[in-house]
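Support request from a user on the community tier.

User writes: "When I paste my structure tokens into the form, the page sometimes reloads and wipes my input. The last time it worked, I copied everything first. Here is what I submitted, just in case something in the input itself triggers the reload:"
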């Protein structure tokens, strides 16, 4: 039982001082009570797949095998081989691997590979027993022995010399055991670890799922014994008060002796990682304990020159707390930061200054070990990658990281949203009276106690996307409980939903470019680009900040060179399946091109996603899904970084940071496709969430050709730029009649004297197309009698069918695949953009890069990709479409070849309809006709008429 004592509330310290003297506790020559012993090393071990160990009293016998801890069973070579009967922890939506003939080679025991996530070298779910002999030195005589297991997966039970000590089931914090007073000498320590899903957190929760970290069995991190006195510091919680420049320090003193006692409590804080060292004045207070554990509260003045913590200046303090008496002495050092994370209207504020969350998810993706690292160095690497891409925030999707992550984030100024290890889906619910309801409360309490002092710990939620008829009522009470218990951070019900009145901020998928299941009706597929759109309607609907939930989810083609990186417990055998498929289709040599081209498209999609959030006045922030790839749920290659947080080859951190950082110039324009008869108009805006407002900022803009030649430039009025994102800076007007159309222009906006710069592409086409020259080109919609006759006569034929008459089932989507087709029930689009050679003479009058960009939207939306598998050998489409890596069909929009003596160009883009309103289609048609009229039109590949016949419906040429 613990009691609460607030020292500043005492009317006088005289009574305590009297007690202190009566008990004669002023002597201080006592050694500190804390001593430690690491248990890392070789342990005895035994798996228990049939769960016989408890009945067989294995805690009383010596186990026969050995294992190294910290570590997991797979790391030590233990577990079962993966088979088609393996019982996974995680939902498999597309189950075709179990039945489809194309996967038959990968179901064989000697070649087993799964496509829906990484394949573990070993798999095991069930109890396993770990045992070692511990030596208690004589100097620990009469001390209490505490056992700490930093991270276990999942439930643990502990015995010492066959005596049961207890059990623990946290997925988020160390499992702590009081072993009692042990005599000097050797004792047998036995631990049973069971990674069976013990509580209904959801099989897809990243705390337990094979989708990401794997459902591993083991113990990682620090494994240690600590000897301590009966009277000791059990916990220290520090509550900063920025306004009053002080901190409330809550010290819980454990007293397992049961005796009444008193002593002196001393506080001493010193900054340690800032340019200016700040030593806070020491404070002492007397305390008395009547035999039970008590929490003592002290107001600790930090001084007017206190250093605050934020993303730009992550100043930290070490607070040393000591208790001192006649028979005891103990000391504990805690790191904390002076920061206040609150809301101001619909935006977040840190220490009273508005801030904007630029975040990504971390889903416990660590392929080498299959579990999260517990060392600070590894987490510095992760957070450095995030910061290099302009992010200031990580959301831990349905799990909580170890202490090392918080330590690294504290040092680097990164804000965390932590979750209570749950994603109640696929059966489990919250709020309906299941054991998960009480477990979430307990897990939240454990998280707040273990990590509550870390300034990086800014937000907490139950977990991800809950289910349950009474979820709103349950989560509302949970949020209120947290707010009352610990106001150092902000709380919300869950990531995704529900939006309830108790939330201090809302996480919602509403404000993003693509909703789950939207398919081709999503913004980027249904409409041409405008950078005028924002999420003001979403902001105006609520009185607290909203964070857009899991924006992006745009895939790229697998990086097959990545396979070699998987040198640990997880292997990228899904990538091996994709590689085999691509090779069978004769396109393995294009794998790198597919990656880079789809990556360039992915980047522009993320750019517009992020900028739409940044240009929304009053918006709270976004959480990407994801900055790095997600290896599970059907393989979701949604990152610009791979699962190792490493560069994939198509966008550098510096390039990404132009549109994602604390200060980003923005441009609102109604469209990106223009003609030389128009005047370009754009409104310059800025999202500025830096450490301070900008004074007398000079904003410059330039429009330039791809070779860097300037078309026009200008300077907006000099002005002060406040913190926020709702202030326009001025307008850009550019007469496009001076532009040498067709061309792409880069519109660049920069803040002079800074590295804040951003750019957008616009495309300028002639207002009208030149009349076609006389030629012998025959333009047809079907390869009928007339066309075949012309080809036999050696003429040139442009086959330009109505896209609706193209066979095949390839939906015409502009974007890349959303998440992936396996997990979304084959949601369109099924493709990853286009690949072409801009130097090909067919495109000489159509300015383009080798990949999709926004000017391709009209062409893709009015097309249908042709499946060219019948032309597999030798045919390279002029404009190729990159297929889903699960199918790897050869797809094309434009290709060429010969039929007899004739030359044929085939285009399945609609270049006929409404050309007066479609300058991009008009220009593509012009470019193709120019090519066919030129000497360069000399296709070499013979095309079989029967194969051409299969491309179109309703053929009538026979």
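"...and here is what came back when it finally went through:"
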């Amino acid at each position: 039982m613990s009691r609460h004592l607030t020292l500043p509330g005492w009317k006088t310290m005289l009574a305590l001082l009297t007690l202190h003297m009566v008990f004669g506790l002023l002597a201080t020559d006592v050694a500190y009570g804390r001593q430690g012993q690491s248990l890392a090393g070789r342990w005895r071990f035994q798996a228990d797949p049939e769960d016989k160990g408890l009945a067989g009293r294995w805690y009383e016998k010596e186990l026969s095998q050995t294992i190294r801890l910290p570590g997991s069973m797979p790391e030590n070579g233990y577990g079962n081989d993966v088979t088609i009967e393996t019982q996974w922890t995680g939902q498999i939506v597309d189950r075709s691997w179990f039945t489809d003939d194309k996967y038959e080679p990968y179901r064989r025991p000697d070649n087993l590979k799964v496509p829906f996530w990484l394949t573990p070298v070993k798999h095991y779910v069930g109890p396993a027993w770990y045992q070692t002999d511990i030596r208690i030195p004589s100097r620990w005589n009469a001390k209490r022995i505490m056992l700490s297991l930093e991270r276990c997966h999942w439930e643990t039970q502990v015995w010492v010399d066959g005596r049961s000590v207890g059990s623990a089931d946290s997925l988020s914090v160390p499992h702590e055991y009081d072993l009692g007073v042990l005599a000097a000498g050797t004792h047998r320590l036995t631990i049973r670890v069971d990674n069976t899903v013990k509580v209904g957190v959801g099989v897809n929760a990243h705390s337990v799922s094979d989708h990401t970290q794997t459902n591993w069995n083991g113990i990682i991190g620090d494994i240690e014994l600590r000897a301590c006195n009966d009277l000791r510091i059990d916990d220290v919680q520090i509550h900063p008060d920025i306004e009053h420049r002080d901190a409330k320090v809550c010290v819980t003193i454990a007293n397992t002796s049961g005796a009444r006692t008193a002593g002196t409590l001393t506080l001493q804080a010193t900054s340690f990682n800032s340019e200016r060292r700040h030593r806070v004045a020491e404070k002492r207070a007397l305390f008395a304990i009547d035999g039970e554990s008590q929490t003592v509260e002290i107001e600790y003045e930090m001084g007017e020159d206190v250093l605050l913590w934020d993303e730009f200046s992550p100043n930290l303090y070490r607070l040393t707390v000591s208790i001192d008496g006649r028979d005891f002495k103990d000391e504990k050092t805690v790191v904390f930061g002076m920061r206040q994370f609150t809301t101001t209207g619909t935006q977040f504020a840190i220490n009273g200054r508005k801030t904007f969350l630029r975040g990504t998810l971390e889903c416990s993706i660590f392929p080498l070990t299959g579990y999260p690292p517990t060392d600070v160095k590894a987490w510095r690497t992760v957070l450095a990658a995030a910061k290099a891409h302009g992010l200031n925030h990580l959301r831990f999707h349905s799990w909580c990281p170890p202490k090392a992550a918080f330590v690294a984030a504290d040092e680097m100024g990164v804000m965390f949203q932590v979750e209570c290890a749950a994603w109640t889906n696929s059966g489990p619910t919250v709020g309906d009276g299941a054991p998960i309801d009480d477990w979430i409360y307990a897990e939240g309490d454990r998280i707040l106690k273990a990590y509550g002092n870390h300034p990086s710990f800014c937000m907490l939620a139950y977990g991800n996307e809950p289910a349950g008829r009474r979820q709103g009522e349950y989560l509302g009470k949970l949020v209120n409980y947290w707010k009352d218990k610990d106001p150092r951070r902000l709380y919300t019900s869950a990531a995704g939903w529900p939006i309830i009145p108790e939330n201090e901020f809302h996480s919602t998928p509403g404000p993003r470019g693509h909703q789950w299941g939207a398919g081709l009706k999503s913004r980027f597929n249904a409409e041409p680009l405008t950078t005028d759109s924002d999420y003001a309607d979403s902001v105006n609907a609520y009185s607290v900040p909203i964070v857009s939930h899991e924006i992006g989810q745009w895939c790229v083609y697998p990086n097959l060179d990545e396979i070699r990186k998987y040198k640990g417990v997880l292997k990228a055998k899904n990538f091996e399946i994709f590689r085999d498929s691509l090779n069978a289709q004769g396109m393995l040599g294009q794998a790198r091109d597919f990656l880079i081209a789809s990556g360039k498209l992915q980047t522009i999609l993320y750019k517009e996603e992020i900028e739409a959030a940044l240009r929304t006045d009053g918006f709270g922030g976004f959480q990407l899904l994801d900055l790095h790839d997600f290896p599970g749920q059907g393989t979701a290659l949604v990152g610009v970084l791979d699962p190792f947080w490493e560069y994939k080859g198509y966008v550098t951190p510096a390039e990404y940071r132009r549109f994602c950082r604390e200060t980003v110039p923005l441009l609102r324009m109604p469209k990106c496709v223009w003609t030389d008869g128009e005047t370009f108009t754009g409104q310059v805006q800025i999202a500025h969430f830096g450490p301070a407002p900008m004074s007398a900022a000079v904003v410059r803009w330039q429009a330039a050709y791809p070779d860097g030649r300037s078309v026009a430039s200008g300077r907006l009025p000099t002005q002060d730029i406040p913190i926020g994102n709702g202030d326009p800076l001025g307008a850009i007007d550019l007469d496009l009649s001076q532009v040498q159309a067709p061309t792409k222009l880069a519109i660049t906006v920069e803040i002079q004297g800074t590295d804040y710069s951003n750019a957008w592409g616009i495309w300028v086409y002639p207002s009208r197309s030149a009349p076609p020259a006389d030629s012998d080109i025959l333009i047809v919609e079907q390869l009928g009698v007339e066309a075949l006759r012309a080809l036999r006569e050696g003429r040139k034929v442009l086959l330009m069918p109505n896209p609706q008459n193209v066979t095949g089932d390839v939906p015409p989507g502009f974007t890349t695949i959303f998440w992936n087709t396996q997990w979304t029930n084959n949601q369109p689009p099924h493709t990853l953009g286009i690949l072409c050679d801009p130097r090909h003479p067919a495109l000489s009058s159509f300015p383009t890069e080798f990949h999709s960009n926004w000017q391709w939207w009209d062409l893709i939306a009015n097309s249908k990709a042709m499946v060219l598998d019948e032309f597999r050998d030798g045919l390279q489409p002029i404009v190729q479409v990159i297929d889903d890596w699960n199918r790897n069909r050869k797809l094309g929009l434009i290709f060429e070849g010969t039929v007899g003596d004739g030359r044929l160009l085939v285009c399945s883009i609609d270049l006929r309809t409404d050309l007066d309103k479609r300058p991009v289609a008009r220009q593509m048609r012009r470019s193709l006709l120019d090519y066919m009229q030129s000497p360069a039109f000399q296709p070499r590949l013979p095309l079989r008429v029967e194969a051409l016949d299969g491309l179109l419906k309703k053929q009538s040429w026979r």
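Agent notes: The reload is a front-end session timeout and is unrelated to the input. Residues 777-949 form one domain. DSSP finds 14 helices and 49 strands in the chain. Escalated to web team.
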